[in-house]
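Aim 2 progress update. The chain analyzed this quarter is reproduced below.
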Amino acid sequence: KRKAFNLENEINNLRTQLKLKNIIDIDNKEYGYDLGVFYMDVIGDCEKLGDYIINVVEVSSEQKEKHKHI
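Predicted structure tokens:
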């Protein structure tokens, strides 16, 4: 569980870094606001996917532990 918690924190930290970089890039006119919103939508979807994967791995690990003790 500790490993999943650490991975979750890494994902959240990366999302925060990308969000801040996105804001800076929009302010610097690297690309427009609309593209920045789309970019953050993609990042948000990737974060959700990572969360789902971590949840599946945690449940799978818990099930394996339960079967070991039966």
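Residues 19 and 40 are 7 Å apart (CA to CA). DSSP finds two helices and no strands in the chain. These observations will guide the mutagenesis experiments scheduled for the next reporting period.
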